Amino acid sequence: MIGALIVRDARRGLTGAAWLPIAFFLLVAVLMPFAVGPDARLLGRIGPGTLWIAALTAALLPIERLIEPDRADGLLDQLFLHGVADETVALSKVAAHWLTFGPLLLVAAFPASALLSVDGRALGQVLLSLAIGTPGLAALAVAVAALTAGLPRAGSIAGLLLVPLAIPLVIFGAANALPLEAAVSLFLVAGAPFVGGAAIRAART
Amino acid sequence: MSALLRFEDVSLRRGGRLLFEGLSFEVAAGERLQVSGPNGSGKSSLIRLAAGLLHAERGRVDRGPVALANDSIALDRELPLGQALQFWNRAPEQAMDALGLTHLALVPVRLLSSGQLKRATLARVAASAAPLWLLDEPLNALDADGAKRLGRLVERHLEGGGAVLAASHQRLGGEWPALELKP
Asked: What are phi and psi of B174, to 5 degrees?
């Protein structure tokens, strides 16, 4: 059931508008040179940080589609009746969400780094930190999506909730402090299923 | 005969309103029970309580595995009906046939009518191995043929040692002992 759920969610994410978060990611990278000017040295210096902010917005974009449609459609109820723990559901959602935006984001980081004139060595570091950090972002997105499922204007509330919690990821990711980055990411991936599962349970009325 | 569902002195409050209190009943293998009552009397809440999706304020609810059909579709709208049902059961063909859905197996769920969707949710229940079926307004949107097919499925399920708890304000086909909820 877990495998089927991951496959289902990943398929839904990819057949839906998988390119949308990635387009958003690239759009931020395109916008940056316009905003700060075409100075290649300056761009190269702020490039990795910009890519991290772009990644954060890309993870945030599909947040309303992660849990709420399944709650409204009764899928979460049926999974409960089939004996799937709410934590397992949340964990599957984390895996599926990461699969739909993580790998694509790493690919999109190549054109984005060219736009920001980030050099090859810095790009390698950004790719590594994104690879380590994006599972944490996915976990955070799922937990927040579960917490806000069913609320009016959930998208804006989710943004307000998620961004402060993502600050450690962004700080360590952009500073390329990989062990700390990995620790934060691991903490989020380990904790999110429990937060998300409890939120799914609490939303069951 | 062993009870598949037992309510003991159960009270349920939702949104500050007491829906029912001191409710006790049993549904044993081979038995059926219809929950009836006017709109808002707590029929659907009782079904959700029996499914374990709600918690009683007081009292005890004991149950085994259940299968639930209510107004929630819980099927992927982009997938063909056959595949969407396969997410829940490996082999839904027999249940689809029993509800007259076989010719719709390749039609995407989003294109189905509300009556066909109702049949699909009933097919999910029929395909499950759970001994207790919980049906919330099973006749909604069903035509005469659908109601007849549902009646036959229920009979067969009861003969096989299953049990059915249905909530409906309409008359269900066959002999149903009634549990009346007061408004």
From this structure: 95, 180
Question: B-chain residues within 8 Å CB-CB of A205?
Answer: 14, 54
Rounded to a whole number of angstroms, the distance from the CA of B74 to the nearest CA of chain A is 4
- Say whether B132 sits in a helix, a strand or coil: strand
- Report d(CA A102, CA B57) in Å as an integer: 44
Domain positions in chain A: 2-202
- Looking at the complex, does the CB of residue A3 fall below 8 Å from at least one CB of chain B? no
pLDDT at A20: 86
pTM for the complete prediction?
A: 0.91
Instruction: Report chain B's terminal Cα–Cα distance, integer Å.
Output: 32
Tell me how far apart the alpha carbons of residues B65 and B128 are, in angstroms, rounded to a whole number: 10
- β-pairing, B58-63 with B3-14? antiparallel
**Location of structure tokens 């299953």:** B162
Closest CA to A161 of A40, A39, A64: A64
**Residues of B at the A interface, defined by Cβ within 8 angstroms:** 14, 51-54, 65-68, 70-74, 76, 78, 87-88, 124, 130
Structure tokens at B130: 């759970």
Report the C-alpha gap between A162 and A66 in whole angstroms. Answer: 14
Interchain contact A18–B (C-beta under 8 A): no
Class of domain B3-71+115-180: alpha beta
Mean pLDDT for back-to-back runs of 10 residues, chain B (183 residues): 86 88 92 91 92 92 92 92 92 92 95 95 93 94 93 94 92 86 79
In this complex, the residue of A15, A77, A82 whose CB is nearest that of residue B72 is A77
Q: How many CB atoms lie within 10 A of CB A53?
A: 18
- Is the ipTM here above 0.85? yes
- Domain assignments of chain B as residue spans, ordered by start: 3-71+115-180
pLDDT for residue A1: 81
Q: Are B135 and B164 in contact (CB under 8 A)?
A: yes
Backbone angles phi, psi at B99, to 5 degrees: -100, 10
